[in-house]
Amino acid sequence: MTEQELALHIAKVLYDKKASDIVALQVGHLTVLTDYLVIATGRSALQVKALADHVESSLAEKGIEPRRVEGRGDMRWVVMDYAHVIVHIFRPDDREYYHLERLWADGQNRVTLPFEREEDTLSV
């Protein structure tokens, strides 16, 4: 699985579990930390936990384990490091406050997610 395929897979897993405001950014040209960021919002601490657990179990089934997971204590902002893809799952207030998209977006690095196209067709 390529880095982009992994980012898209994670975004789809989050989408299937009803995460909102899912964004994937290609950031390899901006940092040496990772190639992609996947950012999503859960409505509550319980949903943030469910989203993080679902990502972790879905990838574990494919033999992919995170290098590190942070934020499971209060479930306000969970960060999951999969080396080439870092996943950020926020509660709404924290997502708005940190606004990672603003920090990492360069106007051309947003990855189009397959389900965004599906939603566009459904709304027409």
Instruction: Give the full name of the CATH homologous superfamily.
Output: Beta Polymerase, domain 2
Strand line-up across the major sheet: 3-4-5-2-1-6
Task: Domain count, please report it.
Answer: 1
Terminal CA distance reads: 33 Å
List the uncertain runs.
Answer: 120-124
Query: How helix-rich are the residues, as a percent range?
Result: 40-55%
Question: Class, according to the CATH hierarchy?
Answer: Alpha Beta
Give the CA-based shape. globular
Architecture, CATH level 2? 2-Layer Sandwich
CATH topology name: Beta Polymerase, domain 2
- Please count the beta strands (DSSP E, at least 2 residues each): 6
Question: What value does the Rg take, in angstroms?
Answer: 14 Å
What average pLDDT do the residues reach?
Answer: 93
**Tally of alpha and pi helices:** 5
Task: Summarize the biggest pleated sheet.
Answer: 6 strands, mixed
Give the helices and strands as they follow along the chain. Answer: HEEHEEEHHEH
Structural class based on helices, strands and sheet pairing: alpha+beta
Describe the 3D structure.
- By secondary structure, the protein is of the alpha+beta class.
- The chain has a single domain (3-123), classed as Beta Polymerase, domain 2, CATH 3.30.460.10.
- It is 42% helix and 23% strand.
- The protein has helices at 3-16, 45-60, 92-98, 100-104, 114-123, and strands spanning 20-26, 36-41, 68-70, 77-81, 85-90, 110-111.
- β4 and β5 form a beta hairpin.
- The radius of gyration is 14 Å and the shape is globular.
- The protein starts with a helix and ends with a helix.
